[in-house]
Input
Amino acid sequence: MNIRIMPMNTSKKPMVTSSLFMLPISNAKDFYILIANTNAMEFQDIVMKINLKKLIIIPVVMLIFSILIVANGIVNHSLPMGFDLKGGTLITVYNAPSDIDLKEKMKELGYDVKVGKIKSYSGEVGVTLEIPKFLSTKEKEEITDYLNSLGIERENIMMKDAEPSISEKLLKDGVKAMVFAFLFMGFVVFLRFKTVVPSFAVILSAFSDIITTVAVMCLLGIELTAGSLVALLLLIGYSVDTDILLTTRLLVRRGGTFYERLASAMKTGLTMASTTICAVFILYLASSSIELKQISVVILIGLVIDVINTWIQNARILEWYVERKKK
Output
């Protein structure tokens, strides 16, 4: 950007102007306004070069493969389910001696357990022992006494169980909640825009976020738990927020070309996404709670996927809709 110094006619103070915007800069406030406008123009230039017609293949392929992965998991009963959705007992042990192999020790006691680690920013703080069956009170006491004999304090041993029947009901209730969330979401969006295509685009984007997130969880072996169901419901709300932001800027507001309005919406939306991702990532690192870690990792996956579905898939559908209305 070419900058030149020009004398002011009255105060004789130097004044800087930009050959890009030809805006007089006589103080720090004017300089910051110029920088903000420059960044906006540069970002708009980048958006103007985007070809949504070519990029739409990315979310389409993601959605098709995600549906196949999730459908295969449902048919073959291979979806990774947490103990609270399939039943069992979860033992959480904090500050266990590092020289003890708890998996082997539990096997000696007659239990085949699945061992997980609890980590925070300071390192490993505990382990989880998942037993795929509901334990009686007597069995829990025996395990507690055995772990205590290994040098683990009783207050550092926590047990949580879930009966299979209750777990099945919890899963069904979670699925019902998501179905009703989609139905009411679609109703509210349709009332707002009163047209089918924009409303369909918002619902499709939210559905794509959920189904793709679940598919990624399957590929990474992340278990579907009560916490992750909550995270998926939160993702529906976040997805609708960004989609309504985009749809409002493109269809309701006037002024500027389609891509100029898209650049304005994208700048706001990506700022929202980046700050949310940073906040949730810090929560994942800092928390030692299993439930919070489950929620945060699912939200992180969903937020990244939402960027693709909102700013490519939804934007392309709306671009097609705007072009069709002009004909």
Remarks:
- The first strand starts at residue 3 and ends at 7.
- DSSP finds eleven helices and seven strands in the chain.
